[in-house]
Amino acid sequence: MRNPSPIPSLRRVALVGTSVPRQCGIATFTDDLYQALSRTDHSLNMSVVAINDCTDAYVYPGYVAFEVQADDPGTYAVAADFLGVSDTEIICLQHEFGIFGGRAGEHVLSLIEGLTAPLVTTLHTVLEKPDHDQLKVMRALVENSARLVVMAEKGRQILQDTYGVPPDKIAVIPHGVPDRAFLDPALAKHALDLADRTLLMTFGLLGPGKGIETAIEALPALIRSHPKVLYMIVGATHPNLLRSEGEHYRQGLVSLAEKLGVRDHVRFIDRYFSLEELLDHLAACDIYLSPYPNEAQIVSGTLAYALALGKAVVSTPFWYAQEMLANGCGVIVPFAKPDALSAAIGRLIDDDKMRTGIRTRAYEQGRAMIWPHVARQYLALFDEVRSASRSNGAQIICFPVPEAIAPPAISTAHLASLTDDVGLIQHAKFGVAHRRHGYCLDDNARGLLVMAQLAMHRNLTPDEERLSGIYAAFVEDAFCPTTGRARNFMRFDRTWVEEGGEDDALGRALWALGNVAIMNDERGLGSWAATRLLETALLLPNCKAPRSWAYGLLGIAAFLKRFPGHRSFEAIRDDLAGRLLQRHRDAAGPQWTWFEDRLGYDNARLCEALIICGQDTHDGVMLEAGLDTLRWLMELQRAPDGHFRPVGTESFGIDRSFPRAFDQQPLEAWAAVSACLAAAKAAHDPQWLQEARRAFAWFFGENDLGLPLVDPARGACFDGLHPDRRNANQGAESTLAYLAALTALTRFAAEADRQEPDCGLPHHSDARSSGKILHRLAKS
């Protein structure tokens, strides 16, 4: 009877790597990926954690949210902490050994091991024969990454053979490339004033290890038969090389060209091009050269760009080239063989048909690599990782309460931090009151209710006495003197937003008043509440919302404990309870034992109200209807492995739809605890104690994510569970839900241990042991 719950859309992604304007291939890739993801999903909230090199300070674009100093190990751990505080849902790390500090870039381990969100690592290098330090880093990356992305099948093979990575942990996503039209190079050469030249090109940051020497050595033989050839070498010297030895390497290439007599056929463009400039030059290229000197190159962004623009490529057989140039998409020549390179280039120049066929096939292959396609693959992978993280996250991480010690004490410290002299502030940013949204009657009434129920369990502390007085004053002020209605929302400047509030707000106020009315305190709060309830309860029958009836019924039931036989209140109770029962009769059907056509918030309150009213009036039909609906609801709120899974907010407003799992709210757990305890008293059935325990254990980690939602020392509760994380804020509603549920179970346990008559439980072993129930809440 449970529908699978679609996971809400991904919202927060962080990329970690070097970033523009730093001049390196990883920085370009990070920027391109950021732009592509942002354009593909406009609702995505994205940021970049940039890895700085040792000496340069960069003026980063606004999306760079944090900077890591490559050689400062401490900044990596701080970055991990920052990503956790930012509530990032997915972190995508761009890994290359040369950009992180420490031996083999080991400083990055301080970052990845401190992450709380799932990590997807894109490997720009995969070594088939790593040394000891490189192997250590790779093993940590494998262990801490939810997925590893490589850009070629060879990368997948090496990960499996060398590092033992399971196949399902590896994703192959191509290197992204720009989307450019398939053009005749003659058109682009005209714009560069090169119309009479046969243009060869290699681009990228200049440095050893790219085989440019071999390409220059191939030119003398080539020029003898093709005197119009010009070899253009585009790109600034790599910044690391520039710092260590200046332009020594470039000058060596110039000297080599001069020595071979081809200096007039080689043009160096010593500049870091913008993307558009680069693509304009690449479009003019007749033949692209990729003469790497050895095979251990798992990806090449420059080769990927050449394919994307439909260039005829001549390359040595390094790993990436072997894969990308298969099926006639390029020409492969042996490593470090100038004569073979010269002959291959000559054939392509002379054979227009061959060159055009290679260009066409290369361009077609490049279509699968354009950034929009790549971005969609990354987003699909991120969603898959989030889903797996949610479903596999059920290693239960519970609050450690040993059986031999007392359960958590009821702390109102966080509640006090959310309360000023006006009332309880609605929202919090993390654990800090967020004043901008002001106050509401809903939360102040709940706060008053919690204080009243806590006072029935133990003496309030002076601070708690003060809180109860503040909440009572807010409730009193909420009733509009002109309309008599209960106003709900108050701005932080103490002005009410409306003159007449919602039905549910009135119901909650009456619920709180009824519980306060049975107090006997020196300040006379009980008398105030009884008087206010007598003045306002007559408004309740005019309410249309079933939940407002339920809240009001709970308040009236409490009031009638002090004033049994109050005719008017008994009449209101009978009327509203009858309405709820009729709602159940009208809405219930096959597989739908409920009061309405849809599930909403605070569901179990409807059941609880019927159960209590049925018990108080000795109406067996009403009591059984309450128990039946609660039994049905609790079964819906049972995950396949048995833990409590409250009706998620995505279920709200959908007719006859079984629950969706997210987002999960503490309010539902509290309602379930209260209703199940009411059922345990009314039905004399200890099984309901177990249901109450199951619902309460949700707060302590027995939930879909295996994450505790409470800080018992402060009495704080997080604002719920998302599909892949808990909401980091700790607002009033959530905190009150936890405190109320804890108070209810603690009171129930104390009553059972005392075997008070009104506990309503038989004197069997399960009931007598109920005082130990909290001792076991942390046990899975």
Automatic annotation (TrEMBL):
Domain Glycosyl transferase family: 197-364
Pfam families membership: Glyco_transf_4, Glycos_transf_1
Superkingdom as given in the UniProt entry: Bacteria
Coiled-coil residue spans: none
Residue ranges occupied by any Glycosyltransferase subfamily 4-like N-terminal domain in the UniProt entry: 107-178
Database matches in InterPro entries: 6-hairpin_glycosidase_sf, Glyco_trans_1, Glyco_trans_4-like_N
CDD domains linked: GT4_mannosyltransferase-like (cd03822)
PANTHER family: BLL5144 PROTEIN (PTHR12526:SF572), GLYCOSYLTRANSFERASE (PTHR12526)
UniProt name for this protein: Glycosyltransferase family 4 protein
Protein source organism: Sphingorhabdus buctiana
